[in-house]
């Protein structure tokens, strides 16, 4: 297969981890006889420094022209401590999502058995958890009308969803459920919110088209509780932007570490694949960042954008083997990990390539 992949490392450890993600893609291409070509582009603080713009037109053009984007992270301490800065790295991220029409954010929450102890939840509750979240990304309270009234003493944010917006993400979630355990949980607050009532109505109307998928509707408060009480009951979860934002961060704790979780943002054109973590200024340049979230993002890219399931599974199996062989990066090591089994970013990448 011939494909063109754009590498957009961004800021901080984004640079360090995407380097490993790219090497893994190169290794997979070599092993399976694919021809991947690569280009690179700027976003975030590094793009502001070079061009004054957090998402230069050239980057956007390259994104549109590529078959998939492997993304790192954006962010710099300079802006975190200056909320009044007019040009900010994260504007690049939001504009990218908007311009590429990335309306669905997929976040697989899969716990590697070797990391059971790294989570704050009891191993016997967690073992076997495997959830795929679909968070709607371009609607809801984040994008509706907002403002102040009554001399600024009252504020409002309007939540809005159209039938079209709910249907397109619900279909993606139904399709994904078909390839997994065939269970879909739609999370809403239909007892209180009109947007949620529309959401539930649309999902109910689609359900007969997917008779092989078992559909369950759950209120968001109940879902927040169930994720911790019994995470194994979930297979695919689909929800609105605000609920998804909160529930996916809650669910990330099931997997133990930020350094292990990948995500995909997809729409109708180029998909963007990235770790859920940020630019991690506290460890930037030390060479100790866990590259596995970027590596697992590369696995998602192969599966979702290119349909290369076997190649994707090969990467996941190599990560599993690396952990089973006892190797850890600092963030997922514990008191029982021997010092010689704690790898830096580059060494973790090299051990992983051997296992592919
Ligand atoms: P963060 O995810 O960068 O880091 C949180 C903590 O987790 C830090 O202690 C960090 O060292 C650790 N960590 C994160 N990824 C790791 C990895 N791969 N290996 C080892 N440890 C890892 O979040 P933050 O500190 O709140 O934010 C730092 C910057 O990142 C901010 O500027 C923020 O705006 C930005 N950010 C960007 C994104 C994105 O680009 N999608 C997401 C979140 C935060």
Automatic annotation (TrEMBL):
Family statement: Belongs to the isocitrate and isopropylmalate dehydrogenases family. LeuB type 1 subfamily.
Entry EC no(s): 1.1.1.85
Site positions for Important for catalysis: 142, 189
Cofactor: Mg(2+); Mn(2+)
This protein's pathway: Amino-acid biosynthesis; L-leucine biosynthesis; L-leucine from 3-methyl-2-oxobutanoate: step 3/4
Protein's organism: Dyadobacter psychrotolerans
Residue ranges of every copy of the Isopropylmalate dehydrogenase-like domain listed in the record: 4-352
Pfam families, alphabetized: Iso_dh
GO biological process: L-leucine biosynthetic process
Reactions the enzyme catalyzes: (2R,3S)-3-isopropylmalate + NAD(+) = 4-methyl-2-oxopentanoate + CO2 + NADH
Localisation per UniProt entry: Cytoplasm
Function: Catalyzes the oxidation of 3-carboxy-2-hydroxy-4-methylpentanoate (3-isopropylmalate) to 3-carboxy-4-methyl-2-oxopentanoate. The product decarboxylates to 4-methyl-2 oxopentanoate.
Coiled-coil regions listed: none
Cofactor notes: Binds 1 Mg(2+) or Mn(2+) ion per subunit.
Keyword Magnesium attached: yes
GO molecular function, one term: 3-isopropylmalate dehydrogenase activity
Taxonomy, superkingdom: Bacteria
UniProt keyword list: Amino-acid biosynthesis, Branched-chain amino acid biosynthesis, Cytoplasm, Leucine biosynthesis, Magnesium, Manganese, Metal-binding, NAD, Oxidoreductase
Binding positions (Mg(2+)): 221, 245, 249
One cellular component (GO) term of this entry: cytosol
Subunit structure: Homodimer.
Binding-site residues, substrate: 97, 107, 135, 221
Protein name as it appears in the record: 3-isopropylmalate dehydrogenase
